[in-house]
Protein backbone atom coordinates (compact mmCIF):
# COMPACT_ATOMS: atom_id res chain seq x y z
CA UNK A 1 0.00 0.00 0.00
CA UNK A 2 1.36 3.43 -0.99
CA UNK A 3 0.92 6.09 1.65
CA UNK A 4 1.13 9.81 0.96
CA UNK A 5 1.20 10.89 4.61
CA UNK A 6 2.43 8.93 7.62
CA UNK A 7 2.28 10.35 11.13
CA UNK A 8 4.31 8.25 13.55
CA UNK A 9 3.94 8.72 17.33
CA UNK A 10 3.02 12.35 16.75
CA UNK A 11 2.78 14.39 19.95
CA UNK A 12 2.29 18.09 20.58
CA UNK A 13 2.37 19.72 24.01
CA UNK A 14 1.57 23.31 24.90
CA UNK A 15 2.96 23.78 28.42
CA UNK A 16 0.91 21.34 30.54
CA UNK A 17 -1.62 20.61 27.79
CA UNK A 18 -1.11 17.59 25.53
CA UNK A 19 -3.04 18.55 22.40
CA UNK A 20 -1.97 15.52 20.37
CA UNK A 21 -0.99 12.33 22.16
CA UNK A 22 1.03 9.73 20.24
CA UNK A 23 -0.97 9.92 17.01
CA UNK A 24 -0.30 7.20 14.43
CA UNK A 25 -2.09 7.58 11.12
CA UNK A 26 -1.48 6.65 7.49
CA UNK A 27 -3.24 8.45 4.64
CA UNK A 28 -3.24 6.66 1.30
CA UNK A 29 -2.26 8.17 -2.02
CA UNK A 30 -5.25 9.27 -4.05
CA UNK A 31 -7.88 9.12 -1.32
CA UNK A 32 -10.18 11.68 0.26
CA UNK A 33 -9.49 11.33 3.97
CA UNK A 34 -12.10 12.80 6.29
CA UNK A 35 -10.62 14.04 9.57
CA UNK A 36 -13.23 14.63 12.24
CA UNK A 37 -13.27 15.54 15.91
CA UNK A 38 -15.01 17.79 18.45
CA UNK A 39 -13.58 21.26 18.93
CA UNK A 40 -10.48 21.00 21.10
CA UNK A 41 -9.92 17.33 20.21
CA UNK A 42 -6.52 17.99 18.58
CA UNK A 43 -7.71 17.71 14.97
CA UNK A 44 -6.45 21.09 13.77
CA UNK A 45 -3.15 20.76 15.63
CA UNK A 46 -2.62 17.31 14.06
CA UNK A 47 -3.23 18.59 10.55
CA UNK A 48 -1.00 21.63 11.05
CA UNK A 49 1.84 19.30 12.04
CA UNK A 50 1.15 16.88 9.16
CA UNK A 51 1.50 19.66 6.58
CA UNK A 52 4.52 21.34 8.16
CA UNK A 53 2.86 24.42 9.67
CA UNK A 54 3.58 23.40 13.24
CA UNK A 55 6.60 21.64 14.71
CA UNK A 56 5.71 18.54 16.76
CA UNK A 57 7.02 18.07 20.29
CA UNK A 58 7.98 14.56 19.22
CA UNK A 59 7.24 12.11 16.45
CA UNK A 60 7.81 11.87 12.70
CA UNK A 61 5.86 12.98 9.62
CA UNK A 62 6.61 11.44 6.23
CA UNK A 63 5.22 12.88 3.01
CA UNK A 64 5.45 10.34 0.19
CA UNK A 65 8.15 8.54 2.18
CA UNK A 66 10.26 11.66 2.79
CA UNK A 67 10.65 13.53 6.08
CA UNK A 68 8.43 16.59 5.96
CA UNK A 69 11.39 18.90 6.64
CA UNK A 70 12.86 17.93 3.27
CA UNK A 71 9.85 18.20 0.96
CA UNK A 72 9.38 20.94 -1.63
CA UNK A 73 7.04 23.78 -0.68
CA UNK A 74 4.72 23.10 -3.61
CA UNK A 75 3.95 19.52 -2.56
CA UNK A 76 1.04 20.62 -0.36
CA UNK A 77 -1.85 23.01 -0.99
CA UNK A 78 -3.91 24.37 1.89
CA UNK A 79 -7.41 25.81 1.53
CA UNK A 80 -8.17 27.50 4.86
CA UNK A 81 -11.64 28.01 6.29
CA UNK A 82 -11.00 31.76 6.37
CA UNK A 83 -11.09 33.36 2.93
CA UNK A 84 -7.56 34.39 1.97
CA UNK A 85 -8.23 36.67 -1.00
CA UNK A 86 -6.94 39.87 -2.56
CA UNK A 87 -10.14 41.91 -2.66
CA UNK A 88 -8.90 44.44 -5.23
CA UNK A 89 -7.59 41.93 -7.79
CA UNK A 90 -9.68 40.06 -10.35
CA UNK A 91 -10.06 36.28 -10.18
CA UNK A 92 -7.57 35.83 -13.01
CA UNK A 93 -5.04 38.24 -11.48
CA UNK A 94 -5.34 36.48 -8.11
CA UNK A 95 -4.63 33.07 -9.62
CA UNK A 96 -1.75 34.46 -11.67
CA UNK A 97 -0.17 36.05 -8.59
CA UNK A 98 -0.46 32.84 -6.57
CA UNK A 99 1.02 30.82 -9.45
CA UNK A 100 3.95 33.25 -9.66
CA UNK A 101 4.60 32.79 -5.93
CA UNK A 102 5.07 29.08 -6.60
CA UNK A 103 7.14 29.79 -9.74
CA UNK A 104 4.72 28.01 -12.08
CA UNK A 105 6.03 28.36 -15.69
CA UNK A 106 3.97 30.84 -17.77
CA UNK A 107 2.80 28.36 -20.42
CA UNK A 108 1.63 25.95 -17.73
CA UNK A 109 0.19 28.76 -15.63
CA UNK A 110 -2.13 30.16 -18.28
CA UNK A 111 -3.60 26.75 -19.09
CA UNK A 112 -3.97 25.90 -15.42
CA UNK A 113 -5.81 29.16 -14.67
CA UNK A 114 -8.14 28.57 -17.62
CA UNK A 115 -8.98 25.05 -16.37
CA UNK A 116 -9.56 26.13 -12.78
CA UNK A 117 -11.89 28.96 -13.77
CA UNK A 118 -13.84 26.53 -15.98
CA UNK A 119 -13.99 23.66 -13.48
CA UNK A 120 -15.09 25.89 -10.61
CA UNK A 121 -17.63 27.82 -12.73
CA UNK A 122 -15.77 31.12 -12.53
CA UNK A 123 -14.97 31.66 -16.22
CA UNK A 124 -17.48 34.49 -16.65
CA UNK A 125 -16.03 36.12 -13.51
CA UNK A 126 -12.39 35.89 -14.63
CA UNK A 127 -12.05 39.68 -14.92
CA UNK A 128 -14.34 40.55 -12.01
CA UNK A 129 -12.78 42.16 -8.96
CA UNK A 130 -12.91 39.77 -5.99
CA UNK A 131 -14.79 42.27 -3.79
CA UNK A 132 -17.71 42.05 -6.24
CA UNK A 133 -18.02 38.24 -6.07
CA UNK A 134 -20.74 36.41 -4.14
CA UNK A 135 -19.83 34.41 -1.06
CA UNK A 136 -20.00 31.13 -2.96
CA UNK A 137 -17.77 32.42 -5.73
CA UNK A 138 -15.21 33.65 -3.20
CA UNK A 139 -15.10 30.23 -1.55
CA UNK A 140 -14.59 28.52 -4.91
CA UNK A 141 -11.79 30.98 -5.75
CA UNK A 142 -10.26 30.27 -2.34
CA UNK A 143 -10.02 26.60 -3.35
CA UNK A 144 -8.63 27.45 -6.80
CA UNK A 145 -5.83 29.49 -5.22
CA UNK A 146 -4.79 26.54 -3.06
CA UNK A 147 -4.32 24.18 -6.04
CA UNK A 148 -3.09 26.44 -8.86
CA UNK A 149 0.46 25.12 -8.34
CA UNK A 150 -0.69 21.47 -8.73
CA UNK A 151 0.11 20.12 -5.24
CA UNK A 152 0.02 16.37 -4.59
CA UNK A 153 -1.70 16.88 -1.22
CA UNK A 154 -4.65 19.25 -0.71
CA UNK A 155 -5.95 20.14 2.75
CA UNK A 156 -9.51 21.46 2.78
CA UNK A 157 -10.63 23.07 6.05
CA UNK A 158 -14.43 23.44 6.14
CA UNK A 159 -14.62 23.99 2.34
CA UNK A 160 -18.44 24.22 2.22
CA UNK A 161 -18.91 26.53 5.19
CA UNK A 162 -21.84 28.86 4.46
CA UNK A 163 -22.39 27.68 0.88
CA UNK A 164 -25.77 27.36 -0.80
CA UNK A 165 -26.67 23.86 -2.14
CA UNK A 166 -25.76 24.73 -5.74
CA UNK A 167 -22.27 26.03 -4.84
CA UNK A 168 -21.74 23.06 -2.54
CA UNK A 169 -22.51 20.65 -5.40
CA UNK A 170 -19.93 22.38 -7.62
CA UNK A 171 -17.34 22.15 -4.86
CA UNK A 172 -18.08 18.50 -4.08
CA UNK A 173 -17.79 17.52 -7.74
CA UNK A 174 -14.43 19.28 -7.98
CA UNK A 175 -13.16 17.56 -4.82
CA UNK A 176 -14.11 14.19 -6.32
CA UNK A 177 -12.35 15.09 -9.57
CA UNK A 178 -9.17 15.99 -7.67
CA UNK A 179 -9.12 12.40 -6.44
CA UNK A 180 -10.56 10.54 -9.44
CA UNK A 181 -9.06 12.51 -12.33
CA UNK A 182 -5.99 14.25 -10.91
CA UNK A 183 -4.99 11.53 -8.41
CA UNK A 184 -4.49 13.96 -5.55
CA UNK A 185 -4.62 13.07 -1.88
CA UNK A 186 -7.23 15.20 -0.12
CA UNK A 187 -7.57 15.77 3.63
CA UNK A 188 -11.03 17.06 4.47
CA UNK A 189 -12.15 18.58 7.76
CA UNK A 190 -15.81 19.45 8.03
CA UNK A 191 -18.68 19.94 10.44
CA UNK A 192 -21.10 18.69 7.78
CA UNK A 193 -21.57 14.99 8.34
CA UNK A 194 -23.27 14.45 4.97
CA UNK A 195 -20.22 16.02 3.35
CA UNK A 196 -17.82 13.70 5.19
CA UNK A 197 -20.03 10.70 4.40
CA UNK A 198 -20.43 11.55 0.72
CA UNK A 199 -16.83 12.51 -0.10
CA UNK A 200 -14.55 10.49 2.20
CA UNK A 201 -13.00 7.15 1.27
CA UNK A 202 -11.98 6.72 4.90
CA UNK A 203 -12.63 8.73 8.04
CA UNK A 204 -10.41 9.23 11.07
CA UNK A 205 -12.07 10.42 14.28
CA UNK A 206 -9.91 12.02 16.95
CA UNK A 207 -10.76 12.95 20.52
CA UNK A 208 -8.54 14.08 23.40
CA UNK A 209 -5.55 14.08 21.07
CA UNK A 210 -5.89 10.41 20.12
CA UNK A 211 -7.19 8.58 17.07
CA UNK A 212 -10.23 6.67 18.34
CA UNK A 213 -11.52 5.22 15.07
CA UNK A 214 -10.46 4.91 11.43
CA UNK A 215 -12.55 3.18 8.77
CA UNK A 216 -14.77 3.73 5.74
CA UNK A 217 -18.03 5.62 6.35
CA UNK A 218 -19.97 2.45 5.49
CA UNK A 219 -18.09 0.31 8.01
CA UNK A 220 -18.36 2.94 10.72
CA UNK A 221 -22.12 3.03 10.31
CA UNK A 222 -22.40 -0.76 10.22
CA UNK A 223 -20.08 -1.61 13.11
CA UNK A 224 -20.88 1.18 15.54
CA UNK A 225 -24.35 2.22 14.54
CA UNK A 226 -26.35 -0.97 14.85
CA UNK A 227 -30.10 -0.38 14.72
CA UNK A 228 -32.32 2.54 13.75
CA UNK A 229 -32.80 5.89 15.46
CA UNK A 230 -36.00 7.20 17.00
CA UNK A 231 -35.60 10.98 17.22
CA UNK A 232 -37.84 12.68 19.81
CA UNK A 233 -38.26 16.40 20.46
CA UNK A 234 -40.26 17.38 23.54
CA UNK A 235 -42.14 20.65 23.84
CA UNK A 236 -40.26 21.08 27.14
CA UNK A 237 -36.62 19.98 26.63
CA UNK A 238 -35.90 20.48 30.35
CA UNK A 239 -37.71 17.16 30.86
CA UNK A 240 -35.32 15.29 28.52
CA UNK A 241 -33.19 13.72 31.26
CA UNK A 242 -36.25 12.50 33.13
CA UNK A 243 -37.56 10.80 30.01
CA UNK A 244 -34.12 9.41 29.06
CA UNK A 245 -34.00 7.63 32.42
CA UNK A 246 -37.31 5.93 31.60
CA UNK A 247 -36.29 5.07 28.04
CA UNK A 248 -33.22 3.21 29.29
CA UNK A 249 -35.53 0.70 31.00
CA UNK A 250 -37.05 -0.40 27.68
CA UNK A 251 -35.78 -3.86 26.69
CA UNK A 252 -33.42 -4.04 23.68
CA UNK A 253 -32.68 -0.31 23.65
CA UNK A 254 -29.05 -0.03 22.52
CA UNK A 255 -28.43 3.57 23.59
CA UNK A 256 -30.21 6.80 24.52
CA UNK A 257 -28.45 10.16 24.17
CA UNK A 258 -29.44 13.82 24.18
CA UNK A 259 -28.09 16.02 21.41
CA UNK A 260 -29.11 19.54 20.40
CA UNK A 261 -32.09 19.41 22.73
CA UNK A 262 -33.46 16.21 21.19
CA UNK A 263 -33.48 12.60 22.41
CA UNK A 264 -31.96 9.94 20.13
CA UNK A 265 -32.98 6.38 20.93
CA UNK A 266 -31.11 3.61 19.12
CA UNK A 267 -32.86 0.25 18.90
CA UNK A 268 -33.17 -2.81 16.71
CA UNK A 269 -36.57 -2.88 15.01
CA UNK A 270 -37.15 0.66 16.27
CA UNK A 271 -40.67 0.94 14.83
CA UNK A 272 -41.91 -1.82 17.15
CA UNK A 273 -40.69 0.22 20.14
CA UNK A 274 -42.84 3.26 19.32
CA UNK A 275 -45.87 2.19 21.40
CA UNK A 276 -43.64 1.74 24.47
CA UNK A 277 -41.95 5.07 23.83
CA UNK A 278 -45.24 6.93 23.55
CA UNK A 279 -46.60 5.17 26.62
CA UNK A 280 -43.70 6.48 28.70
CA UNK A 281 -44.20 9.98 27.31
CA UNK A 282 -47.86 9.89 28.37
CA UNK A 283 -46.98 8.42 31.76
CA UNK A 284 -44.83 11.47 32.52
CA UNK A 285 -47.52 13.80 31.12
CA UNK A 286 -45.17 15.19 28.46
CA UNK A 287 -45.89 16.47 24.97
CA UNK A 288 -43.95 15.52 21.83
CA UNK A 289 -43.35 18.29 19.30
CA UNK A 290 -41.65 16.06 16.75
CA UNK A 291 -40.91 12.35 16.36
CA UNK A 292 -39.24 10.49 13.51
CA UNK A 293 -37.61 7.14 12.79
CA UNK A 294 -34.55 7.12 10.56
CA UNK A 295 -31.56 5.02 9.63
CA UNK A 296 -28.27 5.38 11.40
CA UNK A 297 -26.04 8.24 10.16
CA UNK A 298 -22.40 9.22 10.52
CA UNK A 299 -23.53 11.89 12.99
CA UNK A 300 -24.94 9.13 15.22
CA UNK A 301 -21.65 7.23 14.99
CA UNK A 302 -19.74 10.37 15.97
CA UNK A 303 -21.95 10.97 19.00
CA UNK A 304 -21.64 7.33 20.06
CA UNK A 305 -17.84 7.56 19.91
CA UNK A 306 -17.25 11.00 21.42
CA UNK A 307 -20.41 11.57 23.45
CA UNK A 308 -20.88 14.97 21.86
CA UNK A 309 -22.11 16.73 18.75
CA UNK A 310 -19.47 17.84 16.28
CA UNK A 311 -19.89 21.56 16.98
CA UNK A 312 -19.46 21.39 20.75
Automatic annotation (TrEMBL):
Membrane topology: Multi-pass membrane protein
Compartment(s) where it occurs, according to its Swiss-Prot or TrEMBL record: Membrane
Superkingdom: Archaea
An example molecular function term from Gene Ontology annotations: ATP hydrolysis activity
Keywords (A to Z) from UniProt: ATP-binding, Hydrolase, Membrane, Nucleotide-binding, Transmembrane, Transmembrane helix, Transport
GO CC annotations, alphabetized: membrane
Gene3D superfamilies, A to Z: P-loop containing nucleotide triphosphate hydrolases
Residue ranges of domain ABC transporter in the record: 5-233
First-listed, main subcellular location of the protein, grouped into a coarse class: membrane
Enzyme Commission number, as recorded: 3.6.3.25
PANTHER family xref list: LINEARMYCIN RESISTANCE ATP-BINDING PROTEIN LNRL
Record-given protein name: Sulfate-transporting ATPase
Lineage: Archaea, Methanobacteriati, Methanobacteriota, Methanomada group, Methanobacteria
Amino acid sequence: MDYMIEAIDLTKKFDDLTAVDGLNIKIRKGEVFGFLGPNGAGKTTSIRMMVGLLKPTSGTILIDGTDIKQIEKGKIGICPQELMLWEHLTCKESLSLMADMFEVPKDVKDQRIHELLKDLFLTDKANTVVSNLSGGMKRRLNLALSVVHEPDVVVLDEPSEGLDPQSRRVLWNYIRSMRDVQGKTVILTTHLMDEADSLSDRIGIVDHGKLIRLDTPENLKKEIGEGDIVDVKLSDPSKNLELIKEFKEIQDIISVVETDGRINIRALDAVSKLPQIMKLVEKLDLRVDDLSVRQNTLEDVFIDLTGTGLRE
